[in-house]
Amino acid sequence: MKIFLVGFMGCGKSTKAKQLANLLACPVIDIDAVIVEQQQMSIADYFAANGEAAFRQLENEMLKSFDYPDTCVVATGGGLPCYFDNMEWMNQNGITVYLEMTPPQLVSRLHNREKRPLLKGMDDEQLLTFIIGKLEERNVFYHQAKLIINAFDLDPKELLEEIEAIG
Ligand SMILES: Nc1ncnc2c1ncn2[C@@H]1O[C@H](COP(=O)(O)OP(=O)(O)O)[C@@H](O)[C@H]1O
Ligand SMILES: O=C(O)C1=C[C@@H](OP(=O)(O)O)[C@@H](O)[C@H](O)C1
Ligand SMILES: [Mg+2]
């Protein structure tokens, strides 16, 4: 079973991927972390040096070229499902899970904004407006996930049970 976690920045993909992988005793792959390791620079630095379009190309290549073990949990970047045929590819190659949260819940989780180039320098009010607009664009992709679950206060064991029920 390959589990792909998708959702907006701050919904907990990276954190929950590690927790799920712990429960399953399987590898965790965080696409952003793979990019950081391969490029030897942070996501923010990569955006600054090469721009967003180059980043989208790179995450598309990483997603498709990674040698996934049979059982693994994959944390995607928040934008990854929304470019190219990435969402379709993940649906063909594993179980996709949308960790859904409301815009105010996302604001409350997004403290470290400098790490996320799209959020750089935003205060809470600007961030809330940005999230509402971006979610409108992105929901069409996120909603193609096989499982959609509210992820605020979600226990990893409960999440795993929900995934196993459909997998
Ligand atoms: N259950 C939780 N309770 C409180 N904060 C959390 C929880 N899970 C994750 N966080 C925090 O929320 C932020 C976003 O989590 P992260 O896993 O990086 O999300 P994503 O990968 O979806 O952007 C991080 O600062 C993380 O420490
Ligand atoms: O939503 C996005 O476009 C992005 C989300 C980030 O990942 P997280 O969702 O893990 O923060 C990272 O890939 C990059 O900053 C762009
Ligand atoms: Mg992440």
TrEMBL record:
- Cofactor note text: Binds 1 Mg(2+) ion per subunit.
What positions does the entry give for substrate binding? Answer: 32, 56, 78, 138
Please state the pathway this protein functions in, per its UniProt record: Metabolic intermediate biosynthesis; chorismate biosynthesis; chorismate from D-erythrose 4-phosphate and phosphoenolpyruvate: step 5/7
Q: Which residues bind ATP?
A: 10-15, 116
Which coenzyme or cofactor does it need?
Answer: Mg(2+)
Question: Which reaction equation describes what this protein catalyses?
Answer: shikimate + ATP = 3-phosphoshikimate + ADP + H(+)
Location in or out of the cell:
Cytoplasm
Which Enzyme Commission number(s) are listed?
Answer: 2.7.1.71
Q: What class of enzyme is it?
A: transferase
What interactions and quaternary structure are annotated?
Monomer.
Can you say what this protein is called? Answer: Shikimate kinase
The species this protein was found in: Pedobacter chitinilyticus
* Gene expressing this chain: aroK
